[in-house]
Specification:
Layout (H helix, E strand, L loop, with lengths): L2 E5 L9 E10 L2 E11 L5 H5 L7 H4 L8 H16 L5 H27 L24 H29 L8 E2 L2 E2 L5 H32 L13 E8 L5 E8 L14 E4 L34 E4 L8 H8 L8 H25 L16 E9 L2 E10 L2 E8 L1 H5 L11 H6 L11 H9 L18 E5 L2 E5 L1
Antiparallel strand pairs: 1-2, 2-3, 4-5, 6-7, 8-9, 10-11, 11-12, 13-14
Length: 480
Amino acid sequence: MKTIVPIDPVTRLEGHLKIEIEVDQVGGKQQITDARATGTLFRGFETILQGRSPEDAPHITQRICGVCPVPHAAASVNALDDLSGIEVPNNAKLVRNLVLGANFIDSHILHFYHLAALDFIEGPNMPPWQPSWKVDKRLSGAVTSVLVEHYKQALAMRRKAHELGAILGGRLPHTPAFIRGGTTAVPKSADLTKMRTYLGELLKFIRTVYIPDVNALAAAYSDYFDIGGGPGNLIAFGVFDELNGTHLLRNGLTKSGSPIIEPVDVWSIKENIGHSWYTDANQNLNPAVGETVPQYPKGDAYSWIKSPRYNGAPFEAGPLARMWVNGDYRNGISVMDRHAARAEEALKVANAMLVWVNQIQVGQPAYKQSTLPSAGTAIGLSEAPRGALGHWVKVQSGKIAKYQIITPTCWNASPMDSLGVKGPVEQALIGTPIKDVAQPIEALRVVHSFDPCLSCAVHVSRPKEGVRIFAIGGGLHANV
């Protein structure tokens, strides 16, 4: 008999996500036979930006998320640089790389130790480890004790990553340093020395703690190399500008886990809203011409997340996609491969940051003056720790007329499209074995491996039935 299991909300991620799974017997084994991923809140940032100065976009879009705001600044200034038709100075490229790289390291450490590892570890009898389900926890007591200590150590490492990025970013998580034409930072020798010290500590942690811990988890849960594959299509927009005109992690995509990498054609991206709470007039539009017009309720729609598709197919974004496209990691596509690729990427980025620090030329400019045209369109592509990020902007009469954003979690947690094709998280869940429907830890391990960030996907809540809203002193207050 089929059992419908709602997991609402999915905890230990940024934002509000609901997962609904259908569990049934298949070949004598209990497993997920259907899945739905629901973004339960509406994101209105595209609407907020309309009518504002384009220069506001890098700062406003960072407020989409407190975990990965820097990538929004990067994508936004990339769009404005494109609109201005300028090439930023080398020092600006390097400063942007260093601040963004610090955010990547911080986010990767956060994800493994503080968001995902708790699915596998039986921690001490105290928050945040308890309450927890009594489920399949395979690590020995000694290994568990080490990982619990590393959980605490990782909190300090995250702080160091923030402090590292703030040296040239001004502050983190929301940096004011990213502006059209470059950065506000003026690197000094003392800044670079301080950054090298931080990088030395973080590199040591990644090499001697983070990667070994991921390997220990992978050894104990090796079956998760065969769980949570999804569609097998991977996409990356490219990130971290090198001075030779390439990217540290390049642009590209692959289909069905193939080693053949194709360049990304941004005009092949369409947003399907067949099962999303948006008006059907916006069906299958490229973000350059797309709209964000809510429609709730709507037929059999079930999510505030749109369904980005590339040539009609769903694609997974994230560290595994980037490392696969780059040729750095191609073991497989699964729960454990996502964790392994993320850890290896943290090491790759940290090593590159040492190079970028040494390439900065003290005394050389990190900003180039330019004129922003009063009208035009542009695209800013980058990567967030969670995957491919794109900003599309249209300017008229010096103001933003249209702004569209596709975030990594829109790729990954997208709902079924109008053709009935499910998104990557939904497909990854199907076939996952479930031992106990009352404690579906296996489903959470799959979902958490994508590191969803629903704050990037959705942002305004509809009150439940019977709630009255009063405006008091200029603010909104709910009276239940």
